[in-house]
Design a protein that fits this description.
- The protein has about 450 residues and is an alpha/beta fold.
- The chain folds into two domains: about 25-125 and about 225-449, Adenylosuccinate Synthetase, Chain A, domain 3, CATH 3.90.170; about 125-225, Adenylosuccinate Synthetase, subunit A, domain 2, CATH 1.10.300.10.
- It has 13 helices and 20 strands.
- The chain has a ten-stranded mixed beta sheet, sandwiched between helices.
- Helix 4 crosses helix 5 (about 155-165), helix 4 packs parallel to helix 6 and helix 6 crosses helix 7 (about 205-220).
- The longest helix is centred in the middle third of the chain and has 22 residues, at about 175-200.
- Bound molecules: guanosine-5'-diphosphate (GDP), 6-O-phosphoryl inosine monophosphate and magnesium ion.
- The site of magnesium ion has 6 residues, from loops.
- Magnesium ion (MG) binds near residues 36, 37 and 65.
Length: about 450
């Protein structure tokens, strides 16, 4: 009962001090609702203006989050997309896996463009990606005759394997040479064996060189590293600061709730923010699902609403659908209401941020998948077993499109009627309200509802 009373009071406080949009004074989570690249970077950057803290909670440099500021386009892989605001503390949480060379390069790029990363904090509990993880990632993919996942080859999966196998090396280990050397020696022996004997490669890692490199990296990032990142976050929660958790990847790439095994090796869903940043579920208020007005996926695996032929290529070109990390062409499909419903349910979405609806302008007719047909029956719950999913065919509703250019529209009222109807359909299938509509990559191209 005490807990409930506290909760109500806290909400009361939020409502009284919040203004209308409501993404304030509380913990908000941004999640991708599809297979990644929904525009999380843009939405995180936009909401960061009202934030005190932005936290990445999972994934690594498999992520590519684009933020467009004026004529500059930034592609962030590890650093939270709140970094462009001087007063926002950016935290790389315990759940992230870090390739130190990539992190340092990203810091350099930002500095060169005049953006100070002084407000960055890195969890000492975050795990480190090594060259042997990248080598394993590539070797595993190459050995597969069929069913390649199409990973980003950044070593993400093998690094998380080591974490869960309790042999991973964490940021904090960079500051204890003895521990670092012994952990590395243990790992190098195992990885060389695996790569050479099982995967038929010819690798040999130099322990002392690697130790020296790691100690150097450790010195370079020392000023950003915090021993207890959870304490930093909890202090902010206690002080009723505005906190944004920035998810990477998307719900359908979640290792538990996505299209396993064609997924990434972490939990991008909202629940992942609790483990990946060390926050309790009852600290969370808003969960904002970022959803592209159509669907894309990079890499292999099932994609029920994938568009056939020329139409897919046209949508890819119009939407600029090429990976922000690997540059690979993204597969494109129609909006999938079954995926949307799944994401809404698994994440507990409170709000939708719809992106790239401008890309659909000019289409005569637009298809929306409202259900799947499975064994002659309509189903509405996403089958996470890919063999069952393979027997599903999308059930489409065809709706009329709109021809107007909407990239300069700034209010909901100004949108063409068919565009509004399309958004309403998305909200209906998601069983969630739309709070933001993005009509272009730039900061100004946003409609707040
Ligand atoms: P993320 O990984 O979810 O952050 O998304 P990406 O950055 O990988 O991909 C989204 C792409 O779409 C980027 O190139 C963005 O600049 C762009 N983008 C974001 N929102 C919009 C929008 O509303 N309209 C258009 N045309 N492009 C957008
Ligand atoms: P953001 O944060 C889109 C995909 C890869 C591959 C699968 C597994 O920019 O939305 P991994 O390297 O993680 O082991 O690859 O996951 N993938 C992404 N697809 N956006 C991403 O991140 C992705 N991160 C991983 O293409 O299919
Ligand atoms: Mg991306």
């Amino acid at each position: 009962m005490g807990g409930l009373t506290h909760r109500v009071e806290k909400r009361g406080f939020d409502i009284l001090t919040n203004g209308t949009a409501g993404f304030f004074m509380t913990v908000n989570i941004i999640v991708g609702t599809q297979w990644g690249d929904e525009g999380k970077g843009k939405i995180t950057d936009l909401l960061s203006v009202d934030m005190d803290m932005v936290v990445r909670y999972q994934g690594g440099n498999n992520a590519g989050h684009t933020v467009v500021i004026g004529d500059n386009t930034f592609k962030l892989h590890l650093i939270p997309s709140g970094v462009f605001y001087k007063n926002v503390l950016c935290v790389i949480g315990n759940g992230v896996v870090i390739d130190l060379a990539v992190l340092l390069a990203e810091l350099e790029t930002l500095k060169k463009k005049g953006i100070s990363p002084d407000n960055l904090r890195i969890s000492s509990q975050a795990h480190i990606i090594f060259k042997y993880h990248r080598d394993l990632d590539t070797a595993q993919e190459e050995k597969k005759e069929a069913g390649r996942i199409g990973t980003t080859s950044r070593g993400i999966g093998p690094c998380y394997v080591d974490k869960y196998n309790r042999r991973g090396i964490r940021i904090g280990d960079l500051y204890n040479e003895k521990v670092l050397r012994s952990k590395l020696a243990w790992n190098l022996e195992e990885k060389e064996f695996m790569l050479n004997k099982f995967y038929g490669m010819k690798v040999s890692y130099d322990l002392e060189k690697l130790v020296a490199e790691c100690l150097g990296f450790g010195r370079d990032i020392k000023k950003y590293v915090v021993e207890e990142s959870t304490s930093v976050i909890h202090k902010a929660i206690k002080e009723k600061k505005s906190i944004l958790m920035e998810g990477a990847q998307g719900t359908m790439l979640d290792v538990d709730h996505g299209t396993f095994p064609y997924v990434t090796s972490s939990n991008p869903i909202s629940g992942g923010a609790c483990t990946g940043a060390g926050i309790p579920p009852n600290a969370v208020d808003k969960i904002i699902g970022v959803v592209k007005a159509y669907v894309t996926r990079v890499g292999g695996g099932p994609f029920p609403t994938e568009i056939e032929g020329k139409m897919q290529d046209e949508l890819r070109e119009k939407g600029g659908e090429y990976g922000a990390t690997t540059g690979r062409p993204r597969r494109c499909g129609w909006f999938d209401g079954v995926v949307m419903k799944h994401a809404s349910k698994i994440n507990g979405l409170t709000d939708l941020a719809v992106t790239k609806i401008d890309v659909l302008s000019g289409l005569d007719k637009i298809k929306i998948c409202t259900a799947y047909e499975y064994n002659g029956k309509k189903i509405y719950d996403f089958p996470t077993d890919i063999h069952r999913l393979a027997k599903c065919t999308p059930v489409y509703e065809e709706v009329p499109g709109w021809s107007e250019d909407i990239t300069k529209v700034s209010t909901y009222e100004e949108l063409p009627i068919n565009c509004k109807k399309y958004l309403e359909k998305m909200a209906e299938l998601a069983e969630c309200k739309v709070s933001m509509v993005s009509v272009g990559p730039k900061r100004k191209q946003i409609i707040k509802l």
